[in-house]
Specification:
The protein has 15 helices and seven strands. The chain is of the alpha/beta class and about 325 residues long. Strand 5 and strand 6 form a beta hairpin. This is BTB domain-containing protein.
């Protein structure tokens, strides 16, 4: 069945308060240079007034939205279809879609199999994703799904990537994004707006991941098998074998590390020889603690071995939502 001319279409737009419909207007706008096919039989107009001359076959085969629209019974019209660039410039009937140029250009390029520029930000991807969802375009959505897993975007906006991935039901992408959210303190009010966009079935696993890492880390830190000098009672100085260690400096460092894990569940700031955490007062006091016996002065804890064990504990923690 031949696609109807845009002059005969009237349906609902993606915005509930507006109609998607053709209107004849005199204007001097030219067609978008990429989408100015002379034999096209559909003319779309953006919010900015740019014209996009497209083949109905392309729209129907790549978009469920347009396939449904063009399948609707159309009223009879005696006016012949005008499809040339010259006719459109004279004021031919066009189809207003009430969408901005940027997402339209990117999405129509994907629908047409044309190359697109490199994505510069997650904002760009999200704008096109929203339109791709409205227009029901499986092919472009698959391409955008791949772009969402780009490491720069995951590092810069991990929570936003997680929100988008869960919205579309992309399990693998959601798991990957959840790993990158471990650099965030989800209880910081700055994240409230994005967390509110998550359904309970997606929010709870993310919160559980962060909490589970914190609690498991605390259990590992308290293990006498892993940290014998700090957690065994009694424990005597390794050097003189006489003085029983008083482990308050280790307990204070453990508490500080627990708070750090709560703030930044990735744990990537822990177990380091240099850096901010290495300069904590609690850390310096712990590594400088010595046996109180006269003429002994042995260090209470092996700094290098202890830091190595802390890193081993962090590596044992779950890293993604289940």
């Amino acid at each position: 069945m031949a696609a109807p001319c845009p002059t005969t279409v009237t349906i609902m737009s993606s915005e509930p308060t507006k109609l998607l419909h053709p209107r004849t207007t005199d204007f001097s706008r030219t067609c978008h240079p990429i989408f100015s096919f002379p034999d096209a039989n559909v003319v779309l107009r953006s919010l900015e007034g740019t014209l996009y001359r497209m083949h109905s076959f392309t729209l129907r085969t790549t978009s469920g939205f347009f396939d449904t629209m063009f399948s609707l019974p159309q009223p009879k019209t005696s006016a012949p279809a005008r499809t040339t660039q010259q006719d459109s410039d004279r004021g031919d009937d066009v189809l207003d879609v009430y969408e901005s140029d940027f997402p339209m250009e990117r999405l129509l390029s994907l629908m047409s199999g044309l190359p697109i520029p490199k994505w510069e930000s997650l904002d760009e991807i999200e704008r096109v994703l929203n339109l791709a969802e409205k227009w029901d375009t499986p092919g472009p959505l698959a391409s955008l799904r791949s772009a969402l897993s780009s490491q720069p975007f995951l590092q810069a906006k991990p929570l936003r990537c997680y929100v988008l991935a869960t919205h579309f039901g992309w399990t693998n992408e959601a798991k990957l994004a959840s790993k990158y959210t471990l650099s965030l303190d989800l209880y910081d009010p700055i994240h409230d707006d994005q967390l509110e966009q998550l359904s309970s079935k997606d929010l709870l696993p993310l919160l559980n991941l962060h909490r589970k890492r914190r609690d498991m880390f605390r259990e590992l830190l308290n293990s006498p098998e892993r940290f014998t000098a700090g957690n065994s009672t009694p424990y005597h100085c390794n050097r003189c074998g006489v003085t029983e260690l008083e482990n308050h400096t280790w307990r204070e460092l453990k508490n500080r590390m627990f708070l750090e894990m709560e703030r930044r569940p990735s744990g990537d700031t822990l177990g380091l020889v240099i850096g901010e955490t290495a300069e904590w007062p609690e850390a310096r006091a712990c590594w400088e603690a010595k046996c109180s016996k006269k003429d002994c002065g042995g260090f209470n804890y092996d700094r290098v071995a202890t830091l190595r064990q802390i890193l081993a504990c962090v590596a044992l923690l779950p890293s993604t939502v289940e």
